[in-house]
Design goal:
Blueprint: E1 11-17, H1 20-29, E2 35-42, E3 52-53, H2 61-70, E4 75-78, H3 81-85, H4 88-94, E5 99-100, H5 104-111, H6 113-122, E6 130-133, H7 136-145, E7 150-154, E8 163-166, H8 169-181, E9 192-196, E10 202-204, E11 207-210, E12 214-216, E13 221-222, E14 225-227, E15 231-234, E16 239-242, H9 249-269, E17 275-285, E18 288-295, H10 302-309, H11 314-322, E19 337-344, H12 361-364, E20 370-374, E21 377-380, E22 383-386, E23 390-398, H13 401-412
Parallel strand pairs: 1-2, 1-4, 2-3, 4-5
Antiparallel strand pairs: 6-9, 7-8, 7-9, 10-17, 11-12, 11-17, 13-16, 14-15, 16-19, 17-18, 19-23, 20-23, 21-22
Helix pairs in contact: 1-10, 5-6, 7-8
Length: 431
């Protein structure tokens, strides 16, 4: 793309969020010749090395808006699900500010599973059979008569944790009680989706979209459960691989034609053209790929792997999405493999302690194929300490998946903090 079509002056950028995804996106954007000053809200110890952190919560839209106006921010990137669901994009645009991400209505693909499932039904998108409930007794009645297993899902945003795979009637009833009677998920659980259980390997697909044009990323594989061999509770993701070894050009073409194109066309027909990153989580069933759920933003930790392989200037891509000129840019990816392995606090995804000193990050990055992205970290008295459940993402690139994984695990051996836990089998089943 000819950059002269853009104003080549430096752009000051605000990145909203404080996880590994935000560090990875900021790291990539900081490599752009046109990147000026980077601000993160709230950021972490890693983002502090490439920009300036500001202590504003990602959901505090009035304060973020004031900050962007006062600092004369050129472009804002709204990366987490919560601010998107709250309509941050609509608010910024209303005030004449340029922001990357979907509107509140477009983000409903993620913020309301009920909306997403009804949308899939309306536009004949492949997904599990389902019913939506906001009445406890009706939901109980449904699972009493339904064949098992079933999946019970919180309709609203629940940090990837509001999904229950129920093999028995009792498990289904317990899940519904947990959500609707005990209010364990608050407002997010006022409505639930009960759907058929699908079997097969899962893959993640990401797409840049400007509302008219789109560009698909390489496929990726997330490892959601805390324990080896996919055991234990679901997390926000314990590791990723790119590209996914089970995908090929024929399968990706099928996904594009049966899922990506009709989703983007459907959103246009709904009067909410999707702008930003669309991320359908898919399952490869014996009847072909089906949608498990939609996300309306970059996945985390997938993005940490993606940013290692993206060759094109990310700031150019972001601006072309905002300007609806994505068709003028050729997005290039390195023809290699990347992986990210998450180092988490003891106790995650349940309760965990904070404030543990982290050692060895610089040593781990001695190998130029390694980049350590910060998530739950902060700086205190010149030391980096743990400040969240998922603490670091150790990302590596290699000619093959095996090489990338070997490099990442070797780097992990140099890092330590009290209670550090991680999966030792990321990508293993595909080797």
């Amino acid at each position: 793309m000819d950059n002269s079509t853009y104003n080549n002056s430096k752009k000051d950028i605000l990145i909203i969020g404080g996880g590994g995804r935000e560090h990875a996106v900021g790291w990539k954007i900081s490599q752009s010749k046109r990147a000026g000053k980077l601000f993160f809200a709230p950021g972490n110890a890693g983002t502090e090395e490439i920009g300036e952190n500001t202590d504003i919560k990602a959901t505090d839209i009035p304060s973020l808006l004031n900050f962007a106006i006062n600092k004369k921010i050129d472009i804002t990137l709204a990366l987490p699900d919560d601010p998107l669901a709250l309509g941050i994009v609509d608010e910024f645009r209303k005030n004449g500010l340029r922001i990357f991400g979907p509107t509140k209505n477009s983000a409903k693909l993620e913020s309301s599973k009920a909306f997403a499932k009804n949308f899939m039904k309306k536009y004949s998108l492949p997904t599990a059979n389902f019913e939506v409930f906001n009445d406890f007794d009706n939901a109980i009645g449904y699972v009493s008569d339904h064949s098992l297993p079933v999946v019970v899902k919180v309709s609203g945003l629940a940090l990837g944790k509001g999904v229950f795979i129920c093999k028995t009637k009792n498990e289904a009833i317990t899940a519904i009680e947990e959500i609707m009677k005990k209010n364990s998920f608050g407002e997010a659980g006022k409505e639930i989706v009960i759907e058929e259980f699908l079997e097969g390997p899962e893959i993640s697909i990401h797409v840049f979209s400007d509302g008219k044009n789109y560009s698909i990323f390489p496929s990726s594989g997330d490892h959601k459960r805390i324990g080896e061999e996919d055991s234990g509770p679901n997390t926000g993701g314990m590791g990723t691989i790119v590209p996914h070894p089970l995908t090929n050009e024929i399968l990706l073409k099928k996904i594009e034609e049966s899922i990506i194109i009709p989703t983007l066309e459907g959103m246009k027909k709904e009067g909410s053209p999707f702008q930003g990153v669309l991320y359908p989580g898919l399952i490869l069933t014996k009847n072909g790929p089906k949608i498990l759920e939609f996300n309306a933003r970059f996945g985390d930790p997938e993005t940490q792997s993606y940013m290692r392989l993206l060759e094109t200037d990310l700031l150019d891509i972001v601006e072309s999405c905002i300007r609806e000129t994505l068709n003028t840019i050729k997005i290039k990816w390195r023809q290699e493999s990347a992986c990210t392995i998450v180092l988490a606090s003891k106790g995650y995804p349940a309760g965990y302690e904070k404030g543990k000193e982290i050692n060895g990050i610089v040593k781990a990055e001695d190998n130029t194929s390694v980049k350590v992205f910060h998530a739950g970290t902060k700086k205190e008295n010149e030391k980096i300490i743990t400040n969240g459940g998922r603490v670091l993402g150790v990302s590596a690139v290699g000619r093959t998946l095996k090489e990338a994984l070997d490099i990442a695990y070797e780097a992990i051996n140099k890092i330590s903090f009290e209670g550090m836990q991680y999966r030792k089998d990321i990508g293993k089943k595909y080797l």
